[in-house]
Structure prediction request, 1091 residues.
Amino acid sequence: LCFLAHRSGARVTAPTTVFEQAPATSPSFSSVWRDEVNRRRDLLAPRWCPKRRVTVSRIKWESVFQSWDRINDHLKFAPQPHVRKLHALRRTRASTTTKGTWIYALWTAENKHIYIGQTGGRLNRRSVGARGSEHIRLGSDFMRIQGEKLRVPSNVYKWISKVGPEKFVVTPLEWVAPHRADRAEQEWMTRWGISALFNQDLPSVASRKWLFLTDRKIWKAELASAGGTVLDVASDILKKDRPPSPYDYSPELLLSLLPATAKLLPAGQHRLLYTRIASHFMIYHKSFLPYSIPVKIPLLSAPEQTTIKHRLHDVIDRHGTWPPSLKAYVKACIRIIVSRSRSVGDLLMHSSLTRMPTHVLSHPGEPCPCQQWQGTPGFHFHHGHMVFRDPGLVRHFHSKLHPEVFSQNMKNATLPSWKVLKDHVNTAFEGIFPNLPDTRQDTAVDMVCALQTCCQSNYMDKIRTADKRVYAPYIEKQRKLLPDFLVVSPMDKAVQVPIFACHEFWKHVHHDTFFQGGRYRELFRFSSHNDANVATAWSLIDSMSLCVLGKPSDLSRSVGLSPLSRDEQVKAFSHHRQYPSSLRLKNRISTQVDSQLKRIRSSLPSPAAWPRLLTLGFSHTLSVGDLRHSTRPPAASTRVTRTARITRSNRARPPARSRARTQTPAIGPPLPHTDRVQPSDVPFSAPFFKHPKSRPLSVRAPTTRLLPKHKWLDHDTTAKIKLREVIQHHTHPFRQTLRHLGRALTLLWKFAARQPSSIEIIAMDQLLSFVRSHPPVTPQQNWTELDLVEMFPNIPRHEIPKSVEFFWKLFCDGKPKPHHDLGFKIHKAGVKQLDALARKSGDASFHFLTYNDLMCLLSWDTSFNDRFSHFSSVLAQTTGTPIGGSCSAQVACLTLLLLETKLRTLHPDFPPVLRYRDNFLVIPDSPDSVRGYNIERVQQVLSEISGMELTVEGAGQSLDFLECTLSISEGIPGVSLKQPVFSGYAGMSSPTSPAKLLDVFSPNTPRMLRSLVPNLVKKAAHYRLPATGTQFAHNISTIARTFLAKGYPINWWKHSLLRKASSLDLQGPARAGIKLAMTSPQPAVNEGPTM
Prediction:
């Protein structure tokens, strides 16, 4: 160009150099993705081998791993939303060549699906790249051989071959410990969302392992994992409001559709699909299809379950009139279930003590027959009646009584007689007859005969070889030999040996605990325990209706009476006005109230007998208008409304004859609700609720049990018998609502425990952190455990709403506004790991409680949910929270957390301290310390902060705390697994270690060890500080010594223990620990109670 320019006479000059800065641009993900895909396409392409004359794959995987790392570095610049989401969620930036236990994601930019997996917790841990190379290699092979004879998840590799192996990238998500790999994989699947996953190992809906699947409509995601065809057919059937037509689908396809979609559809959708298909077969084929055929048999081992299942399949195959598709469907419907057998405690502890009327507690009666054993060695007499714990003393009552029956573990499973088992099996088999598409019942009869024959042969062998101590007829015979006045009762911590006491002793104890102390108040007294149950349930229903719905229950409005006084009704309605509930909560409570009222109405008499309720102290019911005026200022409360009320002038009185028949000498005036009630002042009447004998009473109400504490021992004759009152809420009419309230409070409690001012631990990991971060101590300092005396009854009720309000405001302050849509998300299926403090969403798989809902339910729980039935009386707890309540632990801990916020403010130099429920753990200063926080000073400060009394539970250089043993070695605190206790001592707080386990002759012992041993190995690996293999071996020897002392055969637990230790890379120390336990001398286990 220059030559031509000079030749033509033109002048060539150089241009002026101008430096311009190029605008800063972010890397283009599309260009990087395109370049790396082309590079991997060349790397993964098969090569022709001239020597072997075949196509081979010689892939340079190091180059592929580098390509994946370059893609992972540019994830944040991707235009695809699911790729940016992957970048936001991943918790590591490690390379794909780093070895370890990893959670990884296999993904592509072509679509939004993803595969989440793990590298595995094996000894030879692989890198993410090595695991990803297996996916790519199998995907390439699947592309050539089309999946024939390939035992791999075909859906994943079909996806890889369809999109192209070069378009897939493997990204590390998180490094985890080997024993947490499975759980971490589930958490990542939950976090990502199941609708876009390509995982084949979806669990069964009935397994309840990952219940987050049950409320997702998976068929809407068009999953290719099941071929797409099955879910498409299910989707078409569910979209229609009628059964499928015979011209659309064949019967074989419809029968195979139900088992194929059982793991993919939510439980409700799958049930609806069954209803449509069953209607199709009933209309067009005149045949009934079962949904499931459960066969529930107790005490079945795994080989016995397999044998029974094969017997049933053989019977179905012999049926000649059924087509093969129907046979396969019926086989899939049969489920063999191992039912829970009765324990020894169920047979020994049959006491109808609380079913008696209340007036028998103060009845003097005749001289007790236990007085004839006064002065006999071993028997103790409290309040003039017999009490003992040594089962060997039962020989004084009858020579045929054997103490070994009463000295065994009360949780041992009993072996029933063949007659009882036959009736039980026949009852279980009754479900087979209506659940088979067999009009003549030939197949059902053959199945029952085959099952009875199989069960009889198995159980006859068990009965002949079983120990007499677990044979139900033998235990029942032994129980009947006990005298009638002797009552067998369990202890508060399921101790191996129960407590024996005279019938009159229990009456005296119940009377002193519930009717003489100031902690409980008697509201009503009836003539039967069933009447007290109905009255308790009615008062709970009426108060709940007023608090949430703002109106009395339909039952109270229909009869013109209410079990609540006027002040109580006004208080309940004031809670409704102060915390208005959401529409969702009102709908749920309204449904529960209606269902509970149906139960009560089935036990109520005719309306003509209702005026007799007026003699029981029931007050007038109030209308909604009355309640609104009552909650206004006093000047406006004088306004009279035109509401129909029942007055004393128009009360219908019963006839004179019936009134004379129902009255007793204990009758009195109507019971005032505001005065202190004495048992002699409470009105008493004949039963007025109708209880038909043809069916059991269906009314549910809270009851109570009085359990002796384990700390009382026989040889300490001067010790006072301590009792614990436990209110049983498993029979509560609003049990489900209370569980949701407890789970919501648990979320707030966990948030409060994470605050800097908190000294409470919830998980045991926090205990290790506390010990690890504790400063060195002097040789004069010791671990000290302090206990709050009766924490639940002493919790101040006025502090409960303050604590909830305080921590809720603290939570809202850390969230962006608005705060009105914040609340508590409670998973409907019961997966507590999915509960969260979050904003309101449209997810139908969660219950959402607003702050007002929580406070309304909490106010009701604090003010009215303290009532329970005991004997024939209705009692109410006046202080604290009840032991055994659904949310008692949560509100107690929240209240203590609020009170403990002042600890560091008032005492900034207080020594490190933690609390677990009602137990404090601290290392006080030595007596000569300058800081001056010795044990007395620490006890005084904590008592002032909590407002409760504290006692010293234990102290020393080595201290047992919960599941571990705390120690001090050379001034450094340490942790190890709790050492077993083989012999008891006076005042010990829990039974000995072997006493808690099932006995070796129990039929359920091998099944118990199958789940117990892996958990104990995890605890052995957890409680070790310093975290060395020697400490783990010491913990394993502790476990093995306990098993050997209990007499368990080594083949029952050794293999399971080593397998779990191998998954934790601790198989060598585990073998050393077992060897150490077998070579050391075995201690003698004291199985009796006299320790």
